[in-house]
Structures are given as C-alpha cells and as structure tokens.
Specification:
globular; disordered N terminus; alpha+beta; Trna Endonuclease, Chain: A, domain 1
C-alpha cells in the first residue's frame, strides 16, 4: 500500500513536480464560470520555472507577484492558494502583498481540497485582522524555515465561498 503525503509535508521540489497547479486550475474554472476576464501575471512554479539559483536573483517583491489580474466589476490582483486542512499564509507573503495593494486591490482565492470549496478573502481585510487582532496561530515550515499564519475555518467561514460546504 502506498501512502500519499499531504503537500504541506513534502519538500519544495516534491510539491512542485506536477505540470499544473491544481488550485490555479480551480481558480481559472471559477473565473470562467463567473464571466471574469483574467490574465496570468505571476511566476508559475510548475511550468517554465526559473532555476532556483536564478530565481533568487529576482527582487523579493517581484518573486511574490500575485498570480493573476482579474477583471469583473473592477480590476484586482488574485493570489491563488491551495490547501488541505489548514490554510497557511507565509508572513513574508503578507508583507509583500501589502506592497502590491498600492497598485490594485488584492483578493486571495483559497481552495480547500478536503472540503472542495473556494474562499475569496479580500487581502486588506485579512491584513487588518492579522495586524490588529493578532489572534492567529503561527507555525514554521520544516523544509525552508518560513514562518506562517494559520487562517482557521472559524475565520474563513466569514467570507464568500463557492463549491461544496
């Protein structure tokens, strides 16, 4: 019997050895279904990725560029995150996205593969809640040492959801 590890327990190369980012596939399905025009703008770690040593030469803010520009009622950046069980947001990403919202509003499209539901989280609201309420649990990835916030279901339930619940 083969045991399948959750992506969060895998190293970077194991997590990114597939040809497609499943959460981004779900996001694009959502855009199409919702008649939202979109264009990929961020780096794609699964297709035509820079070698790690070259990618490190790109300024950090550009390395953390949002995944898409989406235009519905208004233009906004969309950052796509997929997760199982817990939604983890790297502290470094939080600070970088703060810079990007000076250009356009940013929404996080978080897809829970366990529950098969997408959650849309306005970044500025999440940022405010993390900074002001300061009641989010934190953790650290074992493979790279990056620290992250755990965005729990109690918080996620307060946002727009699409799919099964």
């Amino acid at each position: 019997m083969q045991i399948k590890l959750k992506d969060a327990l895998k190293g970077y190369h194991e997590r990114n050895d597939k040809n497609a980012n499943a959460a981004e596939v779900k996001a694009e399905e959502f855009f199409k279904m919702s008649n939202i025009h979109y264009q990929r703008i961020g780096f794609d770690e699964k297709n035509k990725a820079f070698p790690k040593d070259l990618f490190a030469k790109i300024p950090p803010k550009l390395r953390s560029m949002p995944d898409y520009i989406a235009i519905g009622k208004e233009a906004k950046f969309i950052e796509v995150k997929g997760f199982n069980e817990e939604f983890k947001l790297k502290m470094h990403d939080l600070e970088t996205y703060e810079w990007w919202v000076e250009v356009l509003p940013l929404t996080i499209y978080a897809y829970d593969f366990d529950k098969q539901v997408a959650i849309l989280i306005p970044f500025e609201e999440l940022y405010r809640d993390i900074k002001l309420k300061n009641n989010f649990a934190t953790g650290q990835y074992h493979d790279n040492g990056f620290r992250y916030y755990i965005i729990d279901w109690k918080y996620l339930k307060g946002h727009k959801m699409y799919g099964q619940k």
